[in-house]
Every structure is written in structure tokens, then in C-alpha cells.
């Protein structure tokens, strides 16, 4: 709580610095920002953005959802973004290295990998090894965090899925939809994605020894035209309010 | 609407129109220059012969040729019926035939998925009864390409059938030729140029298909990852490979255009 208070003070100072001394409360921030967020954050950030808008009625938040690697590439190519929430530290580091990030990124959540199968698990998948025998397996492209982590989990489990049976989705959400409503037999996605499928697909947990946690850092970006608002949003992502939302959707605390 | 230059000197449009026209041309040419400027010319051969690229090229050629063959085998009879048969609902049938030309391919892919997935309307008995699964298969990629590309053949051939002089067919029939013979010996040779143009168009469209394919057949290396999907997949990891593949698709489009230039661009 102390941190949030500090943030409010900082934001207040920033806003005051802009000459709006009369409206220095965080609720008075105005403007529209674009938040580039990992596709696995789709539901979480839709809710978090709504909560943010409630606190700042003058603020507009647009979400750009895709694989973190794709978002980082877009931002490096000049795509307009005020805040970046990544599903891995590699993509974030790339932006830090190119001096595109304001301040230091904060890790706000973690996420477990899970096997997703068709509703009711008709092909009886129990372990990662079973993925080598079912028909088509949906994985993320190797550049996306969900693809990198899945490859690591499979390596740790000593499982090889032939590339000829692997359909590569551009991001985590697309990997999920390839299983339901799509026609792939199984896939490796985030635990939160399985929850978000709301019963249209089933999940098979991956034991801790083979599981790899995705790490989610958030930061505001230097290219932002509304730096105060961007920073406020980035900080709000770590607030108790947002944390509750994240927890409810299946994310693990940082 | 061409003006005969020997009789009337064509008036050139006002300068403002020429400026706007130049801007319009830039919209087409600037992206192409951008692609050519970044092209890995010195490594082009290596990029094109890389394993992943070769697999995509091979698959694209196989799928697009199959889909063109299907489009001809199924599309010519359809064009024939649409052009010559009188039946209620013909206007609707014609509209349905051209629908995939304007429908976003992703929507087409979703529709294919809902119909042909293992629990889909038709896919259910295909899978349970015959053991056939179209999704995530090369056959599925061919089906997606045919869905999107066949209208180009049907529309071209139908237009040719409607505009051709039917007296030749009548004469052949009067001389005792049966309907099949008339079609084979008279109609088909007369519409051959349009048939070739329609086939080339639908082949080019099939070759470029992306949305319906990735939605319905997925993105499986060597099985459904055709060239456009390989461009998309390689963009982050091997941008040079993506550009090299794009150059191939650009070259193919240009060749098709040059072959068809008399149809579209007049003889100028």
C-alpha cells in the first residue's frame, strides 16, 4: 500500500509539473494510452483496464494483444504503445536494451504451463509424454514465450513431438483456440488460458518438476505521449486491486 | 472505351489529376521498393534453398496445383450450369459462388472449420464413418485454397460462356453432334483462353491463400505451412527468409500478370 501511495505522490508531482496543479489527484489523469500486452493477459488486462478506467474516468485504454515477442518487435519498429506487459523477460529486456523503457520493469505475475485437451479429454492425455502419441498438437511459434517455455518443458520431460504433427500458433490465445473451437487434439498453453476457455476445453496439469513458470514484467515506455498516465497504469498492474483480478484468473503471485 | 489515336488526339488530364494519380501509384510501388530494398540478394539462393523454405515452396506448389485442378474439374461444370441452365434460384447460386471473393478468408476458414472439424456438421460423419480428417491435413489446405480460389475460375469461364457466339454450337448440333461432343469440340476450344486465364487467376489466388488455411488447416511444417504461412512464421526468427519467400510470391504474381496482360491491360 505504501508503494501505491508513493506512486500517487509521484504522479501528482508529474501532473503538477505539467501545470495542472489544481487537479493533482490520480483520478484526474486524462488522455488515451495503448497497452501492449501478452495475449495470455487478454482477460486479465480487459478487466484491469476496466478497473483503471473506473479510477480515471478521463482515461482511455486500448489493448494491443499478441505474442510478447511480436509486440516487442512491433514496438521496436515504432508501433505506438505506452505500456508493455510481457510474458517473458527476454522481450522486455530487448526494449530495455534499446532504451525504449522508462524506469525499471516490475514483475507483477507468474503463470504455469498446462496441457489443454478437448473437452472431457477424449484422447486420455495424462502427461507430456502422451503428447507424442496424440494426433495434432498445438504449440506457439518458437519465438513466442509460450513456445519457448513449452519447448523447455518438453525437453525437461524428454519428450519429442514430431514437427510434422505440430501446428504453430502465433500466440498463446491462438494456440488455445486451435484446440477449441479448433480441431487439434492437444496443446501446451498457460494455466490461465485453460481457465479462460471456460469449459470448452479441459486442462491436464503439468507436474512442477517439468513445469516452467512464465514471468510477467510490466513497464511504461519512453515513446508515450502521456507518460504520467502510462506510469500510473503500469503501477496499477501491481496494485492489490489488479493482483486480486490476476489471482482469480489463475495467475501466480510474483 | 479506347480512343483511336489516329483520329482524335487524346486530351491529357489536368495536372492535379496527374498528381493524385502519381500518389495512387506510390501506394502500390513504395511497399514493393521497400521489399526489394531489404531483399537479401547475396544470400537469396541460400535462403530459398533452406530446408524450411524448400518445404514451404514444395507444399505450396502441390497444394495450389491440386486446388487449381479441383477448381477446373468442379468449376467448369458449375460455370456451364450458371451460364446456360434456367432454374429458380440461379441468381442466388451465382451470388453464393462469388461470395468467397469478397468474404474475409479468415471467416471462410472459420466456416470450413465449423463444417469439417471432427465434430462439425459434415466432418462428423467424414471422421466417424470414413476415418477422414480434413483439419490440419494437406487435403484441408487444398480445400481451403479451393474454397477461396475457385470463384475466380467460375466467374471467368461463366462470362466467356455467356458472351460467346452460340451459333457455332447450334450449327454443330444441327449437323448431328451430341451435346457432349458439342461441348468438347466446339464450346471448350472457344472458351479455352478464358479457361486458361481463370485457371491462372485461381492458381495465383490459391498460392497466396493465408487466412482460411491457417484457420482451417493450421500451421504445420511440411503439411500445411504453405509459403504465405512460412512468411508469417519466419518473420520474427528469420526475417531474411520471410523476405526471400515474399520475393518468390511477388515474382509469381508478376508472371501471372504478364501472361494475362492482354486480358486486363488491353493490348497497349
Walk me through what this model shows.
The complex is a heterodimer of chains A (254) and B (268). In chain A, helix 5 links the parallel strand 6 (137-140) and strand 7 (166-169). In chain A, helix 2 packs antiparallel against helix 9. In chain A, 36% of the residues lie in helices and 24% in strands. Chain A contains 9 helices and 10 strands. Chain B is globular, with a radius of gyration of 22 Å. Chain B has one domain (44-264): MetI-like (MetI-like fold, Orthogonal Bundle). The model of chain B has no long low-confidence stretch (mean pLDDT 90). Chain B is mostly helical and 268 residues long. In chain B, helix 3 (51-84) packs parallel to helix 7, helix 4 (90-102) packs across helix 7 and helix 9 (179-208) runs antiparallel to helix 12 (239-259). The longest helix of chain B is centred in the first third of the chain and has 34 residues, at 51-84. Classes of the chains: A alpha/beta (254), B mainly alpha (268). Chain A binds chain B through residues 69-70, 73, 135-136, 138, 141-143, 163-170, 178, 181-184, and chain B through 113-114, 117-118, 123, 133, 135-136, 218-225, 232-233, 236-237.
Keywords for this entry:
heterodimer; A: alpha/beta; D-Maltodextrin-Binding Protein, domain 2; five-stranded mixed β-sheet; 9 helices; disordered N terminus; B: 268 residues; mainly alpha; MetI-like fold; 75% helix
Low-confidence stretches of chain A: 1-24
What is the count of distinct domains of chain A? Answer: 2
SS content category of chain B? mainly alpha
Largest sheet of chain B: none
Q: Note the run of SSEs of chain A as H and E.
A: HEHEHEHEEEHEHEHEEHH
Write the CATH homologous superfamily of chain B: MetI-like
Task: Name the CATH superfamily classification of the largest domain in chain A.
Answer: Periplasmic binding protein-like II
Radius of gyration of chain A using CA atoms only: 19 Å
CATH top level of chain B is Mainly Alpha
Euclidean distance between termini CA atoms of chain B: 13 Å
Q: In the CATH scheme, what's the topology name of chain B?
A: MetI-like fold
What share of the residues of chain A does DSSP label as strand, in percent? Answer: 15-25%
Please tell me the CATH architecture of the largest domain in chain A by its name.
3-Layer(aba) Sandwich
Number of strands of chain A: 10
Strand content of chain B: under 5%
General shape of chain B: globular
Largest sheet of chain A: 5 strands, mixed
Order of secondary-structure elements of chain B: HHHHHHHHHHHHH
Amino acid at each position: 500500500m505504501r508503494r501505491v501511495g508513493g506512486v500517487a505522490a509521484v504522479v501528482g508531482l508529474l501532473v503538477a509539473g505539467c501545470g495542472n496543479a489544481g487537479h493533482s489527484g490520480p483520478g484526474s489523469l486524462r488522455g488515451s494510452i495503448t497497452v501492449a500486452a501478452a495475449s495470455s493477459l487478454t482477460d486479465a488486462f480487459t478487466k484491469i483496464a476496466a478497473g483503471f478506467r473506473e479510477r480515471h474516468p478521463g482515461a482511455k485504454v486500448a489493448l494491443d494483444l499478441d505474442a510478447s515477442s511480436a509486440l516487442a518487435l512491433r514496438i521496436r519498429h515504432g508501433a505506438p504503445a505506452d505500456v508493455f506487459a510481457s510474458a517473458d523477460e527476454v522481450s522486455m529486456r530487448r526494449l530495455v536494451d534499446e532504451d525504449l523503457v522508462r524506469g525499471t520493469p516490475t514483475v507483477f505475475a507468474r503463470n504455469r504451463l498446462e496441457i489443454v485437451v478437448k473437452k472431457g479429454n477424449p484422447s486420455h492425455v495424462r502427461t507430456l509424454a502422451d503428447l507424442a502419441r496424440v494426433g495434432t498438437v498445438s504449440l506457439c511459434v518458437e519465438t513466442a514465450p509460450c513456445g519457448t517455455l513449452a519447448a523447455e518443458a518438453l525437453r525437461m520431460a524428454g519428450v519429442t513431438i514430431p514437427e510434422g504433427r505440430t501446428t504453430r500458433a502465433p500466440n498463446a490465445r491462438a494456440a488455445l483456440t486451435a484446440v477449441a473451437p479448433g480441431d487439434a487434439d492437444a496443446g501446451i498453453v498457460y494455466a490461465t488460458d485453460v481457465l479462460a476457455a471456460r469449459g470448452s476445453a479441459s486442462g491436464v496439469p503439468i507436474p512442477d518438476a517439468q513445469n516452467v513458470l512464465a514471468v510477467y514484467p510490466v513497464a511504461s515506455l519512453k515513446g508515450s505521449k502521456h507518460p504520467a498516465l502510462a506510469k500510473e497504469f503500469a503501477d496499477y498492474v501491481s496494485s492489490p486491486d489488479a493482483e486480486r483480478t490476476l489471482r482469480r484468473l489463475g495467475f501466480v503471485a510474483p | 472505351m479506347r480512343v483511336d489515336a489516329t483520329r482524335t488526339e487524346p486530351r491529357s488530364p489536368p495536372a492535379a489529376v496527374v498528381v493524385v494519380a502519381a500518389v495512387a501509384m506510390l501506394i502500390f510501388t513504395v511497399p514493393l521498393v521497400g521489399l526489394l530494398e531489404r531483399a537479401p540478394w547475396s544470400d537469396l539462393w541460400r535462403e530459398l534453398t533452406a530446408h524450411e523454405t524448400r518445404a514451404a515452396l514444395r507444399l505450396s506448389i502441390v497444394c495450389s496445383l491440386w486446388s487449381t485442378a479441383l477448381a477446373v474439374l468442379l468449376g467448369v461444370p458449375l460455370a456451364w450450369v450458371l451460364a446456360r441452365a434456367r432454374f429458380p434460384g440461379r441468381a442466388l447460386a451465382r451470388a453464393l459462388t462469388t461470395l468467397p471473393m469478397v468474404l474475409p478468408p479468415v471467416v471462410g476458414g472459420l466456416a470450413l472449420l465449423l463444417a469439417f472439424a471432427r465434430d462439425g456438421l459434415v466432418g462428423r460423419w467424414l471422421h466417424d464413418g470414413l476415418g477422414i480428417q480434413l483439419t490440419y491435413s494437406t487435403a484441408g489446405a487444398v480445400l481451403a485454397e479451393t474454397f477461396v480460389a475457385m470463384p475466380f475460375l467460375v466467374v471467368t469461364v461463366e462470362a466467356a460462356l455467356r458472351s460467346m457466339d452460340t451459333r457455332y454450337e447450334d450449327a454443330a448440333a444441327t449437323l448431328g453432334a451430341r451435346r457432349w461432343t458439342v461441348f468438347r469440340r466446339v464450346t471448350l476450344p472457344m472458351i479455352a483462353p478464358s479457361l486458361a486465364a481463370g485457371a491462372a487467376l485461381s492458381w495465383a489466388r490459391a498460392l497466396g491463400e493465408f487466412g482460411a488455411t491457417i484457420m482451417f488447416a493450421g500451421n504445420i511444417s511440411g503439411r500445411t505451412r504453405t509459403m504465405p504461412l512460412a512468411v508469417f512464421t519466419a518473420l520474427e526468427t528469420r526475417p531474411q527468409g520471410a523476405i526471400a519467400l515474399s520475393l518468390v510470391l511477388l515474382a509469381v504474381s508478376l508472371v501471372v500478370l504478364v501472361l494475362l496482360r492482354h486480358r486486363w491491360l488491353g493490348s497497349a
